[in-house]
Amino acid sequence: MSWKSYFSTSVGKKLQMSLTGIFLITFLVVHAYINAQIFWNDGGVEFGHLAHFMGTNPVIRTIEIGLFAFLILHVVQGLLLWSKNRGSRKSRYAVKKDSETSKWYSRSMGLLGTLILLFLILHISMFWAPNRGAQTFGDGELDLYAMMRDEFQNVWIVIIYVLGCISLAWHLVHGFYSAFQTLGLATNRYKAMIKTVGVAFSIIVPLIFALMPIAFYLKWIQ
Amino acid sequence: MEHYNMNLTLKVWKQKNKNQQGHFETFQVKNISSEMSFLEMFDVLNEQLIAEGKEPIAFDHDCREGICGACSMHINGRAHGPWHHTTTCQLHMREYKDGDTIVVEPFRANAFPVIKDLVVDRSGFDRIIQAGGYISVNTGNAVDANALPIEKHDADEAFAAAACIGCGACVAACPNASAMLFTSAKVSHLALLPQGDPERSIRVENMIRQHDKEGFGGCTNIGACEAECPKGISLENIARLNREYIAATFRGGSKNSV
Ligand code: SF4
Ligand code: FES
């Protein structure tokens, strides 16, 4: 069998979802670590160092292209699978008690993913896009710390960010475990461990992200 | 527990054939004993319909002891009804009480077209097995039993996977109408044994391709299949199928693949 089958069989496609998903999970760790530097409450000095490095280092900038490619693959393949799977039962049940046999978030990955995507469009257009725009066409990097401080004075932005983090958390509760199950690693011996680590990850990382707009809004950090 | 009798309202899916639209019809059954099985309750209903000169309801059944997998019914929103690890024939009427309404539908999936009423065509499963669920054995003298040592753990796992009765509850329950639990059970019970080793790469590839071709949805690791499987087939088998698939891509192409 060839690698091409990863683009034709249903199992190959879900391996794409798993591998791109694990890459995105890794990205979340890096992103959360760097942004958590704001909690030093040092006026953005520590954060600024790392943000400058991430925004200018050629290796990181190359990985960034890969990040967007994987993100787009994850989104497009996810939506295609969602519509294919939904279409696999054209005549629907009059009564179906899904909640007795599975978890709502496992059944709602398409919806949760779409919410995250909508949030991401807003998020990228607020920080990443203007910054790269200024780097390429303007006078160089923007002061992202000051931008965060300003944007997160708006309660609606804070609420949207918190909702985005909640969608991410539920998406991860299924996605983290699912990625490893797809790789065939969630055997009886490791399944409980993977699920536990997955749930812990799904709580901790989105919580760190959610605390950032909240902290600025409540002036915990200036 | 006390035995009792009950009167029930049944809303049953009626459909003439593959091409016609189906609909629900409502029936009343009286004096159903709590000791009857769900299928025996249907026997009572059908005798009643025949006595009234009406057409009985078509449903699949064979062993009526939970081992053949024929008795596909989707009962009040659950494949094979509400009991854990249970086929329809093993569901008993003591689950219900007098005056209950029960909705009975066929298993629904594009890959399981309705033939008539509650009977669905599950021959897609047969074609998945034909695509790779076999081993090649040289003819000649029979090999001594136990000539091939098999580790106890592997033997047990293979046996557990082989317990799949092809009932289709996994497909019926899956929000994606995926047959991955079934396919993984069929891949697993051979992949775990030395006899299944020579064809392991083409087996997993051909069975997955056939699975997709039949129109079953893809697996997204939701787990409703495992919760609904009457034989307790574990999701670990799907993990194993995925490992077999990944390993097969590393081993490279095969001439025999479809
Ligand atoms: S895996 Fe379980 S639910 Fe699916 S066909 Fe086999 S026995 Fe039935
Ligand atoms: S009739 Fe054979 S399992 Fe129910």
Average pLDDT number of chain B: 94
| Strand percent estimate of chain B | 5-15%
Kindly estimate the percentage of residues of chain A that lie in beta strands according to DSSP. under 5%
- Which CATH first-tier class of chain A would you pick? Mainly Alpha
Structural class, judged by helices and strands of chain B? alpha+beta
Helix content of chain A: over 70%
Overall radius of gyration of chain A:
19 Å
Task: Return the CATH architecture of the largest domain in chain B.
Answer: Orthogonal Bundle
Ligand identities: iron/sulfur cluster, FE2/S2 (inorganic) cluster
Rg from Cα of chain B: 21 Å
Give me the oligomer status. heterodimer
User: What is the total tally of β strands of chain A?
Assistant: 0
Total DSSP E strands of chain B: 7
Query: Are there runs of chain A of 5+ residues with pLDDT below 50, and where?
Result: none
Q: How many domains of chain B? A: 2
Q: What is the CATH topology descriptor of the largest domain in chain B?
A: Fumarate Reductase Iron-sulfur Protein, Chain B, domain 2
Terminal residue distance of chain B: 56 Å
Q: What is the CATH topology descriptor of chain A?
A: 3 helical TM bundles of succinate and fumarate reductases
Can you describe this structure in just a few lines?
Chain A has eight helices and no strands.
Q: Could you please describe the fold and organization of this structure?
A:
Chain A has one domain (8-86, 109-217): 3 helical TM bundles of succinate and fumarate reductases. With 222 residues, chain A is mostly helical. The termini of chain A are far apart. Chain A is globular and about 55 Å long. In chain A, 28% of the residues are buried. Chain A has helices spanning 10-35, 45-56, 58-86, 104-107, 109-137, 144-151, 155-182, 188-217. Chain A has eight helices and no strands. The longest helix of chain A is centred in the C-terminal third of the chain and has 30 residues, at 188-217. Chain B is built from eight helices and seven strands; from the N terminus they run ββαβββββααααααα. In chain B, strands 2-1-5-3-4 form a five-stranded mixed beta sheet. In chain B, helix 3 (152-162) runs antiparallel to helix 5. The longest helix of chain B has 16 residues, at 236-251. Chain B starts with a strand and ends in a 7-residue tail after the last helix. Chains A and B meet through helix 1, helix 3 and helix 7 of A and helix 6, helix 7 and helix 8 of B. The complex binds iron/sulfur cluster and FE2/S2 (inorganic) cluster (FES). FE2/S2 (inorganic) cluster (FES) binds next to loops of chain B.
